[in-house]
């Protein structure tokens, strides 16, 4: 028993020593990136899938849990693959060129995005839309920082909020098929289901009656 413990401690010391080796840093960063991508994807997707599934999806408890697990796995896997691909390509470019330049990040992420997130499915679609909204905000701020557009005299956020909500509700009312299914479900719950009730039970307690009355 003691011999087994000593062997484990020796193995642990060897692993820790390996992790301190600078020459392996790039490869180890790729591996840890894969790990962090998998963990972060699961942390992000599991609560979202749990809420959306139990709010809007029908079916048995087993079917709902299976749906949550599948969505969580897909998000976790894709993010892990992307981080692994991105960091690997970044390290390869830096090694080949002898230094890191901004274009390396763009090219590595483009290739990773194409390979990992190129399939048009609900999970990838949500991730891309999440990123797109933040890109637009980021590019707007960068344009101001670089002097391409003047610094606004007043906070433009109220105008942005008005335009975003005006556009999305117009699309929901008149071109609903253009919106993502989960957004359609959310808006149906908020703006259409609130138009229908029969008595106090489905006015305050439930959204919809479950009996046949």
TrEMBL record:
InterPro entries: Pmp4 (IPR019531). Pfam families: Tim17. GO terms for cellular component: peroxisomal membrane. Transmembrane segments: none annotated. It comes from the Eukaryota. PANTHER family: PEROXISOMAL MEMBRANE PROTEIN 4. This is PXMP4 protein. It comes from Pomatorhinus ruficollis. The gene is Pxmp4.
């Amino acid at each position: 028993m003691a011999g087994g413990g000593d062997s484990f401690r020796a193995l642990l010391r060897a692993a820790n020593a390996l992790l301190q080796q600078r020459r392996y840093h790039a490869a180890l960063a790729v591996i840890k990136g894969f790990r962090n991508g998998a963990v972060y994807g699961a942390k992000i997707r599991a609560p979202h899938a749990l809420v959306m599934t139990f709010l809007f999806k029908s079916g048995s408890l087993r079917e709902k849990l299976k749906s949550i697990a599948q969505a969580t796995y897909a998000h976790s896997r894709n993010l892990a693959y992307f981080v692994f691909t991105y960091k690997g390509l970044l390290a390869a470019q830096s090694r080949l060129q002898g230094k890191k330049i901004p274009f390396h990040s763009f090219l590595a992420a483009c290739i990773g995005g194409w390979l990992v997130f190129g399939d048009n499915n609900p999970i990838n679609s949500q991730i891309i839309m999440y990123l797109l909204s933040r890109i637009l905000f980021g590019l707007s701020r960068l344009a101001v920082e670089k002097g391409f557009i003047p610094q606004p005299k007043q906070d433009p956020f109220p105008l942005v909020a008005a335009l975003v909500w005006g556009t999305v509700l117009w699309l929901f009312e008149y071109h609903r098929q253009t919106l993502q299914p989960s957004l359609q479900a959310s808006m149906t719950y908020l703006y259409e289901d609130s138009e229908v009730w029969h008595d106090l039970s489905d006015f305050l307690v439930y959204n919809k009656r479950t009996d046949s009355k």
